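As a warm-up, study this chain.
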Amino acid sequence: MAQLRLARHRGHLVAMLALPGVRRLLSVRLAGQFGDGVFQASLAGAVLFDPEHQARPADIAAGFAVLLLPYSVIGPFAGVLLDRWWRQRVLNLANVVRAGAVLVVAAEIAAGVGGAVFYASALVVISLSRFVLSALSAALPRLVAPSELVTANAITATAGTLAASVGGGVAIGARWLLGDTDLDYAVIATAAAALYLLAAGAASGFARTVLGPTADERRGRENVVQITRGLHAGLKHIGEVAPVRDGLAMIGLHRLGYGVTTVCTLLLFRNYFHGSAAGGALRSGLGGLGQVLAAVALGGAVAALTTPVAFRRFGAVRWPAALLLVAALVQVALVLPFALGTVLLAALLLGYIAQSIKISVDTLVQQLIADAFRGRTFALYDMLFNVALVIAAVLTASVLPASGHSPAAVLVISAGYALTAITYLTTGRPAAAAARTTA
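Now compare it with the structure written out below.
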């Protein structure tokens, strides 16, 4: 029976990759998210791992807030536009604009510009990146059948995350070759602009109408009143679709805990771990953070292979709930020792869990949300991710030491995962029935 399920899964993968539209949309995502990884690694190097700066929790929290909160406010309104504008045009033009914005940020890094001007420029790039990802998620159901969405999400979302991780790793490797001056980080950031232009070129290969929305859905107007009404309608629609509402609440709580772990990991490799371990194979500092990114990427790749089978077998509630329980155990068994080796293994497993949960919720949203509301739903979904990460950073800055070493935080996160799993399993069973029926 297990062999039959695996054979069917391989068949789904082959069928997805045989679709020209899916391959082209995947190329847009891969080029763009590879560029995201390069750009974000250059920012991390220039800001967090600059020897002249001491990275404190408050600094990281402020950075996350400045870069993520503004788009979290306008993102849902932008989501309404994804249900009004041709998504092909959005993917093309947004990538061109963010390529130009990256060149501005690179010039600022080279000139040593900091403060509000620098963060505002970086905000433009990151906001456009989130807008592009929402457009990609909203466009995917236009290219595949509902029953194939879980496989399509496994391929595209995970490949995108892997591309971002590889891009970050390549940027870190380039930093070792070039050096760690502001000019070196500026050169690395500039490379992201070329990747965004590649993504724009791939998007231009779609016919204008292929990715939606339909002509009827485009009849709305983009004035402020209409956009506000559209956002309200989207929120109302999500509230009426209980499986999606419960799934978004579950993943929001998961991202809160995952966000605290992410910030603590940054601080641990910046301020707590020193030297190397395992005969020099494991490192601290920016090199060690690159190893963490590689571990997370590997976990995400494994999630792409196994999640579609598990989702179809266990459904949209039991599978994420089981993963959350495993995450609770990982926190205690592997994060709590605060050793380079165990933290790296935890990154692998938590990366797998995070990506698998995201694939499951993405599929749930795409299966059950009408196309007319899909763009704004994914924008709200993205806002949920951003706000959870900022709250996590603020919590870390408020209660955790600058080293990131906090056994109490690990235990609280573990308990939170377990409680979220039990609550979702108890109250979210209609989501499982709805998703399995649709699939």
